[in-house]
Structure formats: structure tokens, C-alpha cells
Design goal:
By secondary structure, the protein is of the alpha+beta class. It is built from twelve helices and 16 strands. It is globular and about 55 Å long.
């Protein structure tokens, strides 16, 4: 799709938003619907995601090779879309490729272990230039839209679920009427079973080739998801500081993976997330294994803005986070919180569980055209199931 067409589409969206400025656009049928109660188990059209065992006993350079070799074509297509997008804006795709290789490739040498070795191994296994693999890993740190829910049932059992939305304004496919990058991402989704000495240490959902984590569970200990937080002091500043030599902050996806693999308790995980210096602001939705162990941790890059916790004794049996500060109202043009909260209240404390959470996340507009996958997790059993999602038209664009 040509750049001019993309700009026309953006302009149409702006005009539409202005036209409905006095109301909540997402509450207008058919872009919303009554709370779904009939979606779980998912229909055959929803693809359940396969699992790849990541052997942590292998050298970092070798861990991802079997997976990425089979997905090289899909990774190259995704990266080319990113390059095309940037090239359209600067009108010089060749220059963009040169810039990526000049600026991004050296970043690999500055990354902490084991990520440096893993990213270099992915580049070698796929034949994709190292700078492009680094860009591919950075991209997920700054462009994710999401809905995450942690909930507790009457017995004190904890459940965690999330929709991962990705690709807003990153290209529109006029043939399929879908976001281009969202389409590219779906074939790359994979569940990863982190194993050491043939024992599962943690489980996470990945886009093949991305070494960080934004959705995962450590059996018996925690569940954890990350949602992007929009902030003027954003991830682009953290990236710039890193390029200029300040490596004191943590990459968000790497930090989550470190927590999943290393944390021995809910309190330890929470303490790490609250206190760590990060490259980008974010919302961390954390669940534990005991009653009341659930929190939305709102993070600035260098400090914690708020911790909002479960308190079932006082009626707070679930927490729901999208991409806006919990103490503020979401914008009218992207209010997934209100319909999600309505559906959770309709579900009720008595019916809390993975089927109910899946139904809530399958209700428009929490299910939208950006939604790539839905993941369901239960900490006690270490259960994690992921489904590739599609929102049938008519469907809200985000």
C-alpha cells in the first residue's frame, strides 16, 4: 500500500473520531456487543498455538535455532514490513537499511547475557542481518496495545488472561481490510516452554525471533503480563540513552523474562518490578498463587507511579488494565476498560475462571482488529493456553 493511501486512511480515522467526539465511539453497534458467554472453548476457526521447548542448557547462540529456521520466511516478511514503513516516511528505503545495520547491529554487543548470544544466534540461523534482528526485538517494546486481567475466585484460586493487540497505524492492507503487521504477526506466535535439565522453569508466549517476554507464567509462583504505557518520557528516550552508552536501565521484555525465570515468590517479583530502572514506561499485571496476590504496577522509566492490588475481602476480586493509567478515564476513542469491566462484573465472582475470562476478552471492542492472540494462565498448575484471534467484521479497528 502506498504512503499516500496510508495517510488518507489515517485522515479518515481522524474525521471519524471527530464526528463521534460527543459519545463513546466504541459503544456504537455493531462495533460493540453484549458480553459474550458462548466463546469458550474456542471455535475451530481459532487456532491453538503450538509449543516450542527452549533448552536453557544449550549455549544461548543455539537455543532458538530449530524454531527460527522454520520461521525464517515469516520473520523476513515481518521485518521487511517494518523497513517499508520507515522507508515510506523518509522516502529512502536503502538509507533505512543502511541506518539499521549501522546503528542497530552494534547494540547487540551491549545487551546483557543471554540475550546478546541469543540474538546473534537467531541472526546466524536465519541469515537475517544482525541489525534487523535487533530492530525486530526492540519493536515489540514500544508498539503493543493490550488488555490484561488477573482475577480470583471464591476459593482463592488465581487466574490471568490477556489479549495482545499490535500493529496500530503500521500499514493497512486494502485487499483484506486488515492491519498489515497484525497479519504478519499471527503466524509467528508460539508458546515457549523454558526447560533446564528437562524440567519446566517457566512458560511464555513469544513472537518467533523475539527473545524478551510480555506474557508468561512461572508454575506455582507467578503469572505476569506487560501492557504498553504511553508517556512523554517514553521508551524512545530509554533507547537513545542506551545507544549513547547509559546501560543502567532494563529492557522491559528482558526484565519480565528474568523475573519469570528467577523469582521465587510473588513478593520478590513485585519488589523487582517496583524498584528496577526501565528503558520504557509500562503496566505490569502480576498474579501470585495466594489469595490477594494480584496487582497492576504502573511504572515510569525510573520509578513506580502506583501499585493497585487485589482485595477480594473488600470486593476487588479482579483487576483489568488496558493502556491507560487506572486513576484516569480512558479516551473515548479507545475505551476497552469500561466494556471489559462491565463484562467482568456481569461474569461475577462466583463464575471467575479461565472460560469466563476468555469470553470477556472475546467481546468487542476488547477483541478488535489488532488482536493477535489471547492467552489464559493458571499459576497453580502452570497451565497456559494461547489462541490466535481474528475479529470478524464489523469490528473496531483497535
Amino acid at each position: 500500500m502506498y504512503f499516500g493511501d496510508k495517510m488518507k486512511f489515517k485522515l479518515l480515522l481522524v474525521i471519524f473520531a471527530v464526528a463521534v467526539a460527543g459519545v463513546y465511539a466504541q459503544d456504537i453497534p455493531p462495533f460493540t456487543e453484549d458480553c459474550r458467554t458462548d466463546v469458550y472453548p474456542p471455535p475451530s476457526s481459532e487456532t491453538k498455538v503450538d509449543t516450542f521447548v527452549l533448552n536453557l542448557d544449550l549455549a544461548p547462540e543455539d537455543r532458538w535455532t530449530p524454531l527460527v529456521k522454520n520461521k525464517t520466511g515469516e520473520m523476513k516478511a515481518m521485518i521487511q514490513d517494518i523497513i517499508d514503513l520507515v522507508g515510506n516516511f523518509v522516502k529512502n528505503e536503502t538509507g533505512v537499511v543502511d541506518w539499521i545495520n549501522e546503528i542497530m547491529a552494534p547494540i547487540a554487543d551491549t545487551l546483557p547475557d543471554p540475550y546478546q548470544g541469543e540474538i546473534k544466534g537467531i541472526a546466524k540461523a536465519t541469515g537475517i542481518p544482525l541489525g534487523e534482528v535487533v530492530l525486530y526485538n526492540i519493536f515489540y517494546e514500544i508498539f503493543t496495545f493490550c488488555t490484561s486481567i488477573v482475577a480470583e475466585d471464591k476459593s482463592g484460586k488465581l487466574y490471568h488472561a490477556r489479549n495482545l493487540d499490535f500493529g496500530l497505524f503500521l500499514g493497512w492492507d486494502t485487499k483484506t481490510n486488515q492491519w498489515e503487521l497484525t497479519e504478519r504477526l499471527r503466524p509467528l506466535i508460539i508458546n515457549v516452554d523454558y526447560q533446564m535439565k528437562n524440567q519446566t522453569i517457566a512458560k511464555a508466549v513469544h513472537f518467533t525471533g523475539y527473545t524478551g517476554v510480555i506474557t508468561g507464567v512461572k508454575p506455582g509462583v507467578i503469572t505476569l503480563t506487560m501492557n504498553e504505557r504511553f508517556n512523554i518520557n517514553g521508551g524512545y528516550l530509554g533507547l537513545l540513552q542506551w545507544i549513547l552508552g547509559d546501560h543502567t536501565g532494563h529492557w522491559v521484555g528482558f526484565a519480565i523474562r528474568d523475573v519469570l525465570l528467577d523469582a521465587q515468590s510473588y513478593d520478590a517479583a513485585k519488589d523487582y518490578i517496583v524498584k528496577s530502572k526501565l528503558l520504557a514506561p509500562a503496566y505490569f499485571i502480576l498474579g501470585g498463587s495466594k489469595s490477594g496476590q494480584g496487582a497492576i504496577i504502573t511504572r515510569d522509566r525510573e520509578s513506580c507511579a502506583e501499585v493497585r492490588s487485589l482485595n477480594p475481602k473488600n470486593g476487588t476480586w479482579f483487576l483489568l488494565e488496558t493502556n491507560y493509567d487506572p486513576w484516569t478515564s480512558p479516551p473515548f476513542f479507545d475505551d476497552r476498560r469500561t466494556p471489559g469491566t462491565k463484562c467482568m462484573n456481569k461474569l461475577g465472582y462466583d463464575n471467575a475462571g479461565l472460560p469466563g475470562l476468555f469470553n470477556v476478552l472475546s467481546t468487542k471492542p476488547n477483541l478488535n482488529m489488532l488482536t493477535t492472540y489471547t492467552t489464559l494462565m493458571q499459576v497453580d498448575s502452570g497451565h497456559m493456553e494461547t489462541y490466535i484471534r481474528h475479529c470478524e467484521q464489523p469490528c473496531w479497528p483497535w
